[in-house]
Amino acid sequence: MSVATAESKTTAKPLPERVRDYLAELGKRTGGDIRSDSFSRVLYSTDASIYQVMPLAVVFPRDVEELQAGVELAAKHGVPILPRTGGSSLAGQAVNEAVVFDLTRHLNRLLEVNTDEKWARVEPGMVLDPLNLQLKQYGLQFGPDPASSNRAAIGGIIGNNCTGSHSIVYGMAADHVLETGVFLSDGSRAHFGPLENGSLTAKTQLNGLEGKIYRELASLVESPKNRAVIRDNTPKHWRRCGGYNLDRLVPGSASYMRPQDPRFNLAKLLCGSEGTLGVMHEIKVNLVNVPERSTIAVIHFDQLYAALSAVPTILETQPTAIELLDQMAMKLCRGVREFARPLSNFVEGSPNCVLMTEFTGTSDEELADKVERLRAHLKSQGVPATAVTEAKSLSQQADVWTVRKAGLGLLMSMKGDYKPLPFIEDAAVPVEHLADYVTQIEEFCQGLGSQVAYYAHASAGCLHIRPLLNVKQAVEVAKLPAISDFSVKLLKGYGGALSSEHGDGRSRSWQNEKFYGPELYGLYRRVKQIFDPHNLLNPGDIVDAPPMTDHLRYGAEYHVHVEPDHVDFSEDQGFHRAVEMCNGAGICRKTTGGTMCPSFMVTQEEEHSTRGRANLLRAGLSGLLPTESLTSDRMYEALDLCIECKACKSECPSSVDMAKIKFEFLARYYEKNGVPLRARMMAGIARASRICSGPLAPVVNGIAGNGLVRTMLEKMLGISRQRQLPRFASEPFTTWFKHRGPQRATGNQVVLFNDTWNTYNYPEVSIAATEVLEAAGFDVLLPGHFCCGRPMISKGMVNQARRAARDCVEKLAPFAEQGIPIVGLEPSCLLTLRDELFELLPDEPRTAKIAEHSLLFEEFIAKLASEGTLDLKVQQAVGKVLLHGHCHQKALVGTGPSKQALAAVGAEVEEVDSGCCGMAGSFGYEAEHFDVSLAMGERRLLPAVRAAGVDTTIVAAGVSCRQQIKHGTGRSALHPAEALHGALFPKR
């Protein structure tokens, strides 16, 4: 399919008249946020699956009444609708040609907690991790723990009947749902909960759709013939979320007798219905106690078959979880800094795979005994484990779960068009058959010429198997149904479940009649007809599904518009493939920790997530949006709030590098639309700083501080008058360095990569660093470079950045070739030498040597401390320190060296999980970004600084971070070099 043809089938297609009428009436009735433009529709056209379907529109109901109006009017106009939360669905149930209701924006509250009875009432858009953080104060949590818990919301978790790593303890989500408030397909309101003592009879006598549902459903499940079909044909494996949960309404079925299941509760049926039976607006869930203590034994194996065969034996020791990490996932993990470090803390050597086996208890002694019994049991049963390591501390266990939860994204970080795809990954079999099932699937796929990857819940017989396929090729697309058919055949033989936590969706709904048989499938179809007679709720899901190869995100007809890249994307195999690295998992939507994605954390807009930006760019590249949209103002708006923090480079397991992608985008955008004056000025800050500092500094500072001038700058250039502009130094660092005279030579040399800010605006930082380095026994040299190129990179000015990069290479290469360390103070500048230098000068052989010898100041000090060669005469311990890490520093290095360097001079360091400060170079100075910039800082950093005692030193390596802290709190933050300097030369 050509690009033009693709456009004609998407953006050029007008909305049906009934949809336009629906949206118009809904807007009049609610005044809500309703979007039907192409960009908004593209943003909600994907989830974490292999599918892409353009929705009809997107609605953001502000309250329950607006949601009800949306459902009611949809019935009136005959418009299909799809309730959606985080969009992390792996089977494609969160995309459809329907009006999407995003429930995460406003319907996201914890309504009530009953600690005595251990339950909570929540709205469907409440994300699980924030919910559990609120419940933690009561010692409670929601039991099921899907790996997507930092962005998956309760509505999606219940709608999918999710579970997670601890499913052998907590079962499925349906085991914890007590009641639901729901809007039925006609917009009427119903409340589903346990019915006992004749109350079902009363329900069947109600008027309207609710009464009809109770009458017809009760009749359906009370039929002896139907009961037999349900009992006999529902998979016996307890870990099942596929089809509809009719078995939970029938006495004598495996799941019916669970103590959480009263006799007749339609809330249980709504679980796993994937938005096809009703739209939930409130959910009452059971809560469990947070385990007092836990430990994780990591069992190493040289063969996957041996590991899987050992699972039944391990289960005999009663663990709470057994998770598998295979060789491929570990290899990918070692290639991502954010995950390589935690992996090294619990994996020894290079095993083929490991089983991460958790135990809980009430004391350390109890846990130690359980692990020792595990070791003894493995030995007595002849299990060929090669090693057993243990993660005892909370930080060690956090490392294990960090790597485990990143498994999906890590697998998707493979470069190129072959990807490990989810479509049979959710199968579960009895654990005694797990090894054989996996072996047969692997052999079948290899017979087709395809490798497979694995991860996940070995304890429940659910091993997420992902064949590596290139579905941009027709021959590979044909493998999808072939592999699925083979899996279904095996599962029926082994008594397994087709869907065990990820749901049916577009991946598996088409197999439901074959898997469950025509009789049970017929009952499922009848359930759908009872609840949704006009087929308006997520149609085509669970029953009456289209073929699995319809609406693939990539397919044989997928093509991209390719232009020459301005920046080197050869490692990604081109700019378009760098964009395609995003698989839609949506980790960039998390808000409870880390840095990615700062703008989404503030705005909660999908287009301000890394996933949203990647979706829009891919749509422009592939023709889903017109090709000219790639350099349009609307695309610029979507990327404008990307502050190029690089957090996605490390925190996204798929390593989507949106900072680099934006660099390329800006180059293309400015090439077509011209470079604004403000961007040119910001990019040329190094030259301007040289001119304005020194003798001219008092004059320039006076002018820049004038209120009238600041108002003019805001009106003419968009530089916020609410910001205090950095002052230029009357004596730049380079002048001080030159005039201070010769120093006693030690023979140990270090190059101080003096950046623009700490040379011309804050020379005291460079002076402090120089004197600390000299105190450590080094002769300090200056390279004499012009600029690292970072300001030009931020503004997409590739040619200017490349010239600056070449200058850096010429100045720094002679030092690097002599093995002289190159030490930098500003993270964004120094780390340019270890990152963008390769992208700007891919054919320059000397860049690797420069990168090898380039270190942040704190890295250099920490390295000396680790080697035992740091000899600093501390005169006054630093004391309490509140540390904030720079975004680039956290993404590429981590804050460990900062803590180690500060500890070397007696600092008691507390690091704030602050995310991004929000200043981000010039971003926070730009008038249109001022409010967003401060909002980013106010999330965690600025409140933490205000709460810090006066005896606490605030430390931040980034100049932008220090500026934001000063502007937002009035407190001054020190660079780590200044903190060390104060310990060596106190108030001299």
Automatic annotation (TrEMBL):
Ranges of residues in domain FAD-binding PCMH-type: 51-290
GO biological process, one term: lactate catabolic process
A GO molecular-function descriptor: FAD binding
The keyword Metal-binding belongs to this UniProt entry's keyword annotation: yes
Domain 4Fe-4S ferredoxin-type: 633-661
Matching InterPro entries: 4Fe4S_Fe-S-bd (IPR017896), 4Fe4S_Fe_S_CS (IPR017900), Cys_rich_dom (IPR004017), FAD-bd_oxidored_4_C (IPR004113), FAD-bd_PCMH (IPR016166), FAD-bd_PCMH-like_sf (IPR036318), FAD-bd_PCMH_sub2 (IPR016169), FAD-linked_Oxase-like_C (IPR016164)
Protein name as it appears in the record: Anaerobic glycerol-3-phosphate dehydrogenase subunit C
Cofactor(s) of this protein: FAD
Pfam families: CCG (PF02754), FAD-oxidase_C (PF02913), FAD_binding_4 (PF01565), Fer4_8 (PF13183)
Gene responsible for this protein: glpC_2
UniProtKB keywords: FAD, Flavoprotein, Iron, Iron-sulfur, Metal-binding, Oxidoreductase
Keyword Iron: yes
